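Protein modeling request. Please complete all fields; requests missing the sequence field cannot be processed.
Requester role: graduate student
Desired output: 3D structure, token encoding
Chains: 1
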Amino acid sequence: MRRPADNDPFALERRRVASAFDAASGQYDAGARVQATVRAELLERLLELRLEPRTILDLGAGTGVATRELKRRFPKALVVAVDLAPGMLEVAARRSSWWRPFRRVVGDAYQLPFRNRAFDLVFSNLMFQWCDNLQDSFAEVRRVLAPTGRLLLSTFGPDTLTELRQSWAAAGDGANHVSRFLDLHDVGDALVRAGLVEPVLDVDRIELRYDAALDLMRDLKSIGARNATVGRSRGLTSRRRLAAVVGAYENHRRNGKLPATYEVVYASAWGSDAAPDDFVARPSNAPGEVHIDVEAIGRSNRPSSPK
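Delivered output (307 residues):
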């Protein structure tokens, strides 16, 4: 599993990310309102592309809601759900049926366990904000994407949870309490540097409204969106500091409600017909790495793992 970058307080600890989503898998769908809204939009955009993929990767599939829909839309395609958290894929298994089955594989976006050019479509809904080096993760997508294949993704932009970020800053402990999110230009640059072709990007905003700041914090915890940055506070938040955050958030109240802003970046790009190793960010036979053919993935209800 990828190690956090040195000296970057916003670098993410991958094991903590996996653990948080694993623990949240049972109640994730009930709290994932933004994720559901963005997923619906991303699937709608997929219709506009008029693709007929034979192999599909749902990267960061979570509980498999989008995976099931991808299989419904493309019943003849081999559809594979990949997630860092095994618990998410255990929930996803309930959405895979004998007449419309999809495969599930535990895997990391930085080191996907598939051979070069394995997929015609890579679909990813709100996963890449959990990758602190987009170029490396996009390079892996580029490696497993067929030259004529398409990447379609959503991720969060820098104004996401800006009210919460400002409120923690006002409380003044100097630690990170909200992850860093990259803007549209950074996402586009990373796609190009990774070797993906003709990227198209745009931005939208979603605003949820809450009665209390603690309700937002509970929602984030319920879906596993916990602080996994290296620079996070390592101790328990005191009641006094939490009260200060809640008080600061009250400055954002409008018409009796507290807003929670989400900036959503949508992007698509094509694969490349250049040699796969031209853009791979790591050796193609890295130590401990296992590559599998998607056709070889078993039919068990248990998510498979290359480990």
